[in-house]
Protein backbone atom coordinates (compact mmCIF):
# COMPACT_ATOMS: atom_id res chain seq x y z
CA UNK A 1 0.00 0.00 0.00
CA UNK A 2 1.18 3.48 -0.84
CA UNK A 3 1.58 6.21 1.77
CA UNK A 4 0.69 9.74 0.70
CA UNK A 5 1.55 12.78 2.78
CA UNK A 6 -0.99 15.48 2.02
CA UNK A 7 -2.58 18.77 3.00
CA UNK A 8 -6.27 19.54 2.36
CA UNK A 9 -6.68 21.45 -0.87
CA UNK A 10 -2.99 21.18 -1.79
CA UNK A 11 -1.62 19.63 -4.97
CA UNK A 12 -1.44 16.31 -3.12
CA UNK A 13 -5.19 16.11 -3.83
CA UNK A 14 -4.47 15.40 -7.50
CA UNK A 15 -2.12 12.56 -6.53
CA UNK A 16 -4.74 11.12 -4.20
CA UNK A 17 -7.34 11.27 -6.98
CA UNK A 18 -4.94 9.62 -9.43
CA UNK A 19 -4.29 6.76 -6.99
CA UNK A 20 -8.04 6.25 -6.64
CA UNK A 21 -8.47 6.40 -10.40
CA UNK A 22 -5.81 3.71 -10.80
CA UNK A 23 -7.48 1.56 -8.13
CA UNK A 24 -4.49 1.70 -5.81
CA UNK A 25 -4.90 1.51 -2.03
CA UNK A 26 -3.36 4.42 -0.16
CA UNK A 27 -2.80 5.47 3.44
CA UNK A 28 -3.27 9.21 3.83
CA UNK A 29 -1.03 11.00 6.33
CA UNK A 30 -1.64 14.68 7.07
CA UNK A 31 1.58 16.67 6.83
CA UNK A 32 0.74 18.68 9.94
CA UNK A 33 0.37 15.49 11.99
CA UNK A 34 4.06 14.66 11.47
CA UNK A 35 6.34 16.51 13.88
CA UNK A 36 9.51 15.84 11.88
CA UNK A 37 8.07 16.18 8.38
CA UNK A 38 11.12 18.08 7.13
CA UNK A 39 13.11 14.91 7.65
CA UNK A 40 10.77 13.30 5.12
CA UNK A 41 10.85 16.27 2.75
CA UNK A 42 13.40 19.04 3.42
CA UNK A 43 11.26 21.53 1.46
CA UNK A 44 8.37 20.88 3.91
CA UNK A 45 6.00 20.49 0.96
CA UNK A 46 3.45 17.93 -0.18
CA UNK A 47 2.86 15.65 -1.92
CA UNK A 48 5.25 12.97 -0.76
CA UNK A 49 4.58 9.42 -1.92
CA UNK A 50 6.14 6.40 -0.23
CA UNK A 51 6.29 3.26 -2.36
CA UNK A 52 8.16 0.65 -0.34
CA UNK A 53 11.72 1.95 -0.01
CA UNK A 54 11.14 4.64 -2.64
CA UNK A 55 10.23 8.14 -1.45
CA UNK A 56 9.12 10.61 -4.14
CA UNK A 57 8.78 14.31 -3.35
CA UNK A 58 7.75 16.04 -6.58
CA UNK A 59 4.22 15.95 -7.95
CA UNK A 60 5.15 15.44 -11.60
CA UNK A 61 7.62 12.68 -10.72
CA UNK A 62 4.93 10.97 -8.65
CA UNK A 63 2.42 11.13 -11.51
CA UNK A 64 4.88 9.64 -13.98
CA UNK A 65 5.90 6.92 -11.52
CA UNK A 66 2.29 5.89 -10.91
CA UNK A 67 1.38 5.90 -14.59
CA UNK A 68 4.48 3.92 -15.48
CA UNK A 69 3.53 1.31 -12.90
CA UNK A 70 -0.24 1.22 -13.22
CA UNK A 71 -1.40 3.25 -16.22
CA UNK A 72 -3.20 1.36 -18.95
CA UNK A 73 -2.28 1.55 -22.61
CA UNK A 74 -4.80 4.34 -23.25
CA UNK A 75 -3.25 6.53 -20.55
CA UNK A 76 0.28 5.89 -21.69
CA UNK A 77 -0.47 6.03 -25.42
CA UNK A 78 1.96 6.34 -28.31
CA UNK A 79 5.28 8.06 -27.78
CA UNK A 80 3.94 11.32 -29.26
CA UNK A 81 0.95 11.22 -26.91
CA UNK A 82 3.24 10.55 -23.97
CA UNK A 83 5.43 13.50 -24.90
CA UNK A 84 2.40 15.78 -25.20
CA UNK A 85 1.08 14.57 -21.84
CA UNK A 86 4.49 15.16 -20.24
CA UNK A 87 4.61 18.67 -21.68
CA UNK A 88 1.26 19.59 -20.15
CA UNK A 89 2.17 17.88 -16.88
CA UNK A 90 5.27 20.07 -16.67
CA UNK A 91 3.25 23.15 -17.64
CA UNK A 92 0.95 22.48 -14.71
CA UNK A 93 3.63 21.53 -12.21
CA UNK A 94 6.52 23.79 -13.22
CA UNK A 95 4.81 26.84 -14.76
CA UNK A 96 1.29 27.32 -13.40
CA UNK A 97 2.01 26.08 -9.88
CA UNK A 98 4.94 28.51 -9.32
CA UNK A 99 2.81 31.36 -10.64
CA UNK A 100 0.29 30.66 -7.87
CA UNK A 101 3.15 30.29 -5.39
CA UNK A 102 4.04 33.92 -6.05
CA UNK A 103 0.51 34.92 -5.01
CA UNK A 104 0.90 33.06 -1.72
CA UNK A 105 4.31 34.64 -1.17
CA UNK A 106 3.01 38.15 -1.83
CA UNK A 107 0.04 37.75 0.48
CA UNK A 108 2.12 36.41 3.37
CA UNK A 109 5.71 37.46 2.81
CA UNK A 110 5.54 41.16 1.96
CA UNK A 111 5.23 43.65 4.79
CA UNK A 112 3.89 46.81 3.15
CA UNK A 113 0.42 46.88 1.65
CA UNK A 114 1.63 48.82 -1.40
CA UNK A 115 4.27 46.24 -2.24
CA UNK A 116 1.85 43.41 -1.58
CA UNK A 117 -0.81 44.89 -3.87
CA UNK A 118 1.64 45.52 -6.70
CA UNK A 119 3.01 41.98 -6.64
CA UNK A 120 -0.45 40.43 -6.28
CA UNK A 121 -1.78 42.29 -9.29
CA UNK A 122 1.21 41.39 -11.46
CA UNK A 123 1.09 37.77 -10.33
CA UNK A 124 -2.66 37.60 -11.00
CA UNK A 125 -2.08 38.91 -14.53
CA UNK A 126 0.57 36.23 -15.04
CA UNK A 127 -1.75 33.49 -13.77
CA UNK A 128 -4.60 34.71 -15.98
CA UNK A 129 -2.28 34.62 -18.99
CA UNK A 130 -1.36 31.02 -18.24
CA UNK A 131 -5.01 30.06 -17.90
CA UNK A 132 -5.58 31.57 -21.33
CA UNK A 133 -3.11 29.01 -22.71
CA UNK A 134 -5.27 26.29 -21.18
CA UNK A 135 -8.39 27.96 -22.59
CA UNK A 136 -6.96 27.89 -26.10
CA UNK A 137 -5.95 24.25 -25.70
CA UNK A 138 -9.55 23.41 -24.84
CA UNK A 139 -11.04 25.15 -27.88
CA UNK A 140 -11.66 21.88 -29.72
CA UNK A 141 -11.31 19.34 -26.91
CA UNK A 142 -12.96 18.70 -23.56
CA UNK A 143 -9.83 17.67 -21.60
CA UNK A 144 -6.20 18.74 -21.90
CA UNK A 145 -4.81 15.38 -23.05
CA UNK A 146 -6.43 12.23 -24.37
CA UNK A 147 -10.12 11.42 -24.16
CA UNK A 148 -10.72 11.27 -20.41
CA UNK A 149 -9.87 13.24 -17.30
CA UNK A 150 -6.17 12.81 -16.54
CA UNK A 151 -3.77 13.78 -13.78
CA UNK A 152 -3.07 17.02 -15.67
CA UNK A 153 -6.74 18.02 -15.54
CA UNK A 154 -6.89 17.14 -11.85
CA UNK A 155 -3.81 19.24 -11.11
CA UNK A 156 -5.34 22.19 -12.93
CA UNK A 157 -8.55 21.82 -10.93
CA UNK A 158 -6.60 21.98 -7.68
CA UNK A 159 -4.73 25.11 -8.76
CA UNK A 160 -7.88 26.83 -10.00
CA UNK A 161 -9.38 26.48 -6.53
CA UNK A 162 -6.45 28.40 -5.06
CA UNK A 163 -7.78 31.56 -6.67
CA UNK A 164 -10.46 31.59 -3.98
CA UNK A 165 -7.81 32.51 -1.41
CA UNK A 166 -7.15 35.91 -2.99
CA UNK A 167 -9.37 38.97 -3.60
CA UNK A 168 -8.20 39.09 -7.20
CA UNK A 169 -9.77 38.78 -10.62
CA UNK A 170 -8.11 35.72 -12.13
CA UNK A 171 -9.59 35.17 -15.58
CA UNK A 172 -10.80 31.67 -16.46
CA UNK A 173 -12.52 31.13 -19.81
CA UNK A 174 -15.69 29.19 -20.56
CA UNK A 175 -13.81 26.15 -21.85
CA UNK A 176 -11.75 26.08 -18.68
CA UNK A 177 -14.83 26.33 -16.49
CA UNK A 178 -16.34 23.36 -18.34
CA UNK A 179 -13.17 21.37 -17.74
CA UNK A 180 -13.15 22.22 -14.04
CA UNK A 181 -16.77 21.16 -13.70
CA UNK A 182 -16.02 17.89 -15.44
CA UNK A 183 -13.10 17.23 -13.09
CA UNK A 184 -15.21 18.11 -10.03
CA UNK A 185 -17.73 15.47 -11.11
CA UNK A 186 -15.09 12.87 -11.97
CA UNK A 187 -15.56 10.01 -9.45
CA UNK A 188 -11.93 9.66 -8.33
CA UNK A 189 -11.49 13.40 -7.85
CA UNK A 190 -14.82 13.80 -6.05
CA UNK A 191 -13.90 10.89 -3.77
CA UNK A 192 -10.54 12.49 -2.93
CA UNK A 193 -12.24 15.80 -2.05
CA UNK A 194 -14.81 13.98 0.08
CA UNK A 195 -12.12 12.04 1.95
CA UNK A 196 -10.21 15.25 2.76
CA UNK A 197 -13.35 17.01 3.92
CA UNK A 198 -14.30 14.05 6.13
CA UNK A 199 -10.90 14.17 7.86
CA UNK A 200 -11.10 17.93 8.33
CA UNK A 201 -14.61 17.79 9.80
From TrEMBL:
SUPFAM superfamilies tied to this protein: GST C-terminal domain-like, Thioredoxin-like
Residue span(s) of domain GST C-terminal: 78-201
Residues of the GST N-terminal domain: 1-74
Entry protein name: Glutathione S-transferase family protein
A Pfam entry, by short name: GST_N_3
Phylogenetic classification of the source organism: Bacteria, Pseudomonadati, Pseudomonadota, Gammaproteobacteria, Cellvibrionales
Organism: Microbulbifer celer
